[in-house]
């Protein structure tokens, strides 16, 4: 038996061991962190839906790309003291099943509408979208205007984002296929979250942080991130083609801590442009927060929800 053949057998054995480790660790995490909400069938696959509080107006929260329902924990805890607040996991994230549909904003908005009807959550809705979730809720508002009472965008994407702020080419380890492989063999789980991720999560309660990271360690999570990233250009094109002009109030909440230089200025200009999507728009700057406003200054979002509810005439 040649040395190369022996080395191949060893490498294959190690890979199989790592894959088995990832599967066992995922199963343990599934047992350790059960879904805090309900799993609702929307047509052959289930989405995780978490609701709390009471009120005539339901507040619907949609996370950014790679975000999950757990990222709304601080907002939901406070806002549910005066409103009915619902967070959910898009298909493929956390406890939600994968979807057979392409991961574009239009499909996501339609899935959310089906979820709300299946969950027996009547409108009107205040739609809260963070980052990529902003595209989803804007398209939801356009598709279902009679169900929409108002929209709150949190450092949201704009349809011109990729034209004005093109993404740099992938590095080798950032390539989606490489990221999937590293997750599949458990490397990402062993390596643990980066310091950047830890800093993003630190305001969340410890039990939320650990549950969130457990969901991020799933191979399916990485697959879903890759699918949404792959469909991002199409999602933004869908948003741009609609030329949305809302007939309801729009609040644009923008991060105050941004990157320096031209990239930061471009982002600020795109945030300003979001205001043109409604004649009833206003902008709030979260001076002490970066992109993750729902983690670092959730009180600004809670106040915006409260104001939108109070300003509505029943």
Annotation keywords:
alpha/beta; 8 strands; eight-stranded mixed sheet; 15% strand; 14 helices; Rossmann fold; globular; 314 residues
Provide structural commentary.
It is a single chain. The chain has 14 helices and 8 strands. By secondary structure, the protein is α/β, with parallel strands linked by helices. Strands 1-2-4-3-5-6-7-8 form an 8-stranded mixed sheet, sandwiched between helices. The model has no long low-confidence stretch (mean pLDDT about 95).
- How far apart the termini lie comes to 81 Å
What is the CATH homologous superfamily assignment?
Alpha/Beta hydrolase fold, catalytic domain
Residues in helix, %: 40-55%
Largest sheet: 8 strands, mixed
Q: Class, according to the CATH hierarchy?
A: Alpha Beta
Question: If you consult CATH, what is the topology?
Answer: Rossmann fold
Order of helices and strands: HEEEHEHEHEHHHHHHHEHEHH
* Beta fraction: 5-15%
How many beta-strand runs?
8
Class per helix and strand makeup: alpha/beta
Order of neighbouring strands in the sheet with most strands: 1-2-4-3-5-6-7-8
Q: If classified by CATH, what would the architecture be?
A: 3-Layer(aba) Sandwich
Number of self-contained structural domains: 1
Q: Overall pLDDT, averaged?
A: 93
Number of helices: 14
Low-confidence stretches: none
Write the layout of secondary structure elements.
Blueprint: H1 3-32, E1 38-41, E2 46-52, E3 58-62, H2 73-79, E4 84-88, H3 105-118, E5 125-130, H4 132-143, E6 148-154, H5 161-164, H6 176-184, H7 187-191, H8 195-201, H9 206-216, H10 219-230, H11 232-242, E7 250-255, H12 262-274, E8 281-286, H13 293-296, H14 298-310
Parallel strand pairs: 3-4, 3-5, 5-6, 6-7, 7-8
Antiparallel strand pairs: 1-2, 2-4
